[in-house]
Amino acid sequence: MAGNDWINSYLEAILDAGPAIDASKSSLLLRERGRFSPTRYFVEEVITGFDETDLYKSWIRAAATRSPQERNTRLENMCWRIWNLARKKKQIEGEEAQRLSKRRLERERGRRDATADMSEDLSEGEKGDHLGDLSSHGNLNQSSIFEFYILSHNTRKHLRDWVGYWKQDVAICDLMELTFLEDCKLIHGLIRGENMELGRDSDTGGQVKYVVELARALGAMPGVYRVDLLTRQISAPDVDWSYGEPTEMLSPRNSDNLHEMGESSGAYIVRIPFGPRDKYIPKELLWPYIQEFVDGALSHIVQMSKVLGDQIGGGQPVWPAAIHGHYADAGDSASLLSGALNVPMLFTGHSLGRDKLEQLLKQGRMTRDEINATYKIHRRIEAEELALDASEIVITSTRQEIEEQWCLYDGFDVILERKLRARIKRGVSCYGRFMPRMVVIPPGMEFHHVVVHDGEIDADLDGNEDNPASPDPSIWAEIMRFFTNPRKPMILALARPDPKKNILTLVKAFGECRPLRELANLTLIMGNRDAIDEMSGMSATVLTAVLKLIDKYDLYGQVAYPKHHKQSEVPDIYRLAAKTKGVFINPAFIEPFGLTLIEAAAHGLPIVATKNGGPVDIIRVLDNGLLVDPHDQNSIADALYKLVSDKQLWARCRQNGLKNIHLFSWPEHCKTYLSRIASCRPRHPQWRRSEDRPEKSDSDSPGDSLRDIQDISLNLKLSIDGDKNEEDALDSEESIADRKNKLEKAVLKLSKGVGKVTQKTESVEKTDQNSSSSKLPALRRRKHVFVIAVDSDNVMELVQIINMIFTSVHKERMAGSIGFVLSTALTISEIHSLLVSGGLAATDFDAYICNSGSDLYYPFSHSEDTLNSSDLPFALDLDYHSQIEYRWGGEGLRKTLVRWAASVVDKSGLKEEQVVIEDEERSSTYCHAFKVKNSALVPPIKELRKLMRIQALRCNVLYSHDGTKLHVIPVLASRSQALRYLYIRWGTNLSTLVVFVGESGDADYEGLLGGVHKTVILNGACDMPQPPVSIRNYDLQDVVAFNSPNIVKTEQGYGSDNICVALQKLDLLKN
Fold first, then answer.
1. What confidence tier does 868 reach under pLDDT thresholds 50, 70, 90?
2. I need a labelling partner for 851 at 20 to 30 A (CA). Which of 123, 397, 975, 1053 fits?
3. What's the pTM value of the predicted model, to 2 decimals?
4. Residue 685 contacts by C-beta under 8 Å, 6 or more apart in sequence?
5. Sequence-distant (≥ 6) Cβ neighbours of residue 655 within 8 angstroms
6. The Sucrose phosphatase-like domain covers which part of the protein (predicted)?
7. Could you give all domains of the chain from N- to C-terminal order, each with its CATH number?
């Protein structure tokens, strides 16, 4: 296309246009210099919103082409690229609008259904409790401050009572490396206490510093004995050796906060080895190793609980007071650890997956599938949803994070959370519904090194003549050399040259306001650079546009933009601005928090900040500045002029900031943080009796423990005939009458679903006392434990697999060095039938994990002769139920599931036929079972989980591998979690477990493949390449490391010889 040089002007305009402009501002640009600008219109209407980095690079190459014909061809191709971008953007916007509309309808329907299930009409009190109450600060009036200090007093009281507790801060910051801070990683990244390599990569950002400093500050708080920051141990050649050290102590920053310490007290970074030992890998590749991290962390916690028990616990284990997960991968891990240990969980999302997905889709450069392939975004979002399910408290930095980011998740609804909280306060039942408490606690800072000079603000800036031994910082001269009059007040902006930071609007506001230009100077600290051409495309574009604006408005001598500065010089820059009676400004379009605003306030600078995001909370607390619309340059100019020209206002804002800045200190942050932990019901592992541990007395147990309050089976003893004994129990949400009805229903359900199982509260103790060959202590003495977890729906095939495994280790089995556990979705009655049909004895197994991990039984060794009688020779582990019942919806959840099942119908026949039917015979107290007649008509597992989460029902939804059965169990229950319980309860070493699985399995299959245990995949067992119903919303390869040396697949079938070969590969059998 000849004569298309006009394209070049369009492309130049694209590069100069800067960030998106709203409608009110657009009209000004379209009339620039009194005429309509089609170039500007094209840019604003078509291109705005896209990342032009690639276009910039292409344009540079095209412009450098000497041949006019080739140059025009390249430019023409770029025009087609732009047109395709515009078309793609409109298509994505339409799809997203439909998706958001559908999501809004689903949430409203779920909220309506949840409200309908809760029988009482909502009062005005329930409608109150505004979201603003979630802030940890509140209004700075006298009563608010008084209430805050009451909280602090109660916190210290609780912490003194926790003398035997220690805080486990799972900043799984880097599950593999604590580098998932600023870029959505925390289980990832490089974490150490000193000389942090912030910015080294996308996984090692500000979040790393936040988590390290939080752990350090908590370790220095009175009442906190120990804080462990768990992260990944990395011994890779391309990273420093310090990241391979197993333990690193975090020394307190301020010696004034030191209190009496014990032998193992303080804050520590504990590095857990998991994943590739010699590689530093990004967070997106860490998902397959999460289970391994959890097992390693669990081992450390158990070991440390014994050490602390000997030191300060009087010989009793000292368990963590709370587990705190940072970022998605750490949140997933913290959920599993919280469930295994039965301790409260906290979560901080930092960067959220759904918000990242929304932003990437808006850019229009990648499809959903491409985004998931790059960022494993579906796995990340599911991890965040699970963290919402398991957390008691979710900590955010701002209200904006709650209102605009967490509200994107199925598991959180501001309106429903408010209603549920009001009902709990009134003591009214929530019918099995739970919502985590959102708490705004801004990040803390260290201010002990900040020195504010109140006196000589107007001192001579040319040097310090009175004290030549302490000259002015060199950065002052570097900045002042730009100014014609360096004594004028300085307007300071500190941000990288990114369109989101809105620096261009600030320069325009300054350039077009003559009174402001005459009164003040402008200093732009825009990172470090050597040459603009060497900067990234977007940064170079913004910086070039800034320089053009300086030239356009002739701001030479009034604007400083130094090329270099050190991180250590930033405090000096703040001091210079304060010394000139200047102002700090953050004009970003959206600012999630605004740490620079707090830093500026600490140095005595009044602030002007965007009204979008965290600055709203900061200025409300500090009362030291003004909020502005970042799109309105006149508003920005007016606010800056007001503060610079009004000396009384400037002094008042400065004084308010200095007076209130302590509210953002680490000690203040920790007081609020610990008061929130103190409000959680204490929970920890607790057994009624064990022969190697003294019996736990009632006085040693927290009386208001959620487990003790809500445990149905704790005080329930069933005889062979189904009689029950009841003891009085307090319940935080239900009356005594409701409790009796619930117990009676539980008895009937157990009797129907399990059969006549001998369940005795003291069964473990009696078995140990009455039988020298008791199987329970044998779990501790086994050298290895083989877990058979093959999800075969063919009874004879499963019996054959069991016999083959028995045969492969016959010698070791007879010697007692190997024990066996059967892990299955079957009920205990179905297991009994299987044993009878296969000629197996109940005592052939040490334990039975049933109903997809919701029940745990042990063989009743002294009743082997009654195998074929009406009594089932199994003892139910009631302590396991007390571990998994957290947030179990019970009858309220069952009613919702039954209603959902009735809505899934087959309309293909002459009349509608229900597809999903409740299976009452296979259901139990902690497992709601359903039959699926046609798996092709049931929704994917993610849709059913979404439905439950929208209604604030927390549960684990599991389809069988063949799609014919559906189990709904407690959210923290699973077959893999049951194995961790055996480790906590009986000391069964997880590294000595060998798990046998088929080629496919139920929805919890992935949990059985990962971890520190060995896994044998039986070739030919459960061979179903494509399940009839979607049982997970991400690829199995994304979450399982099939190349791990701990996973072996039999070569030909699952005969005993093939199993022997697989065990030899795992070094479990000799040749």
1. very low
2. 1053
3. 0.76
4. 317, 319, 341, 342, 883, 984, 985
5. none
6. 899-1016
7. 36-106 (no CATH), 174-194+203-351 (3.40.50.2000), 479-675 (3.40.50.2000)
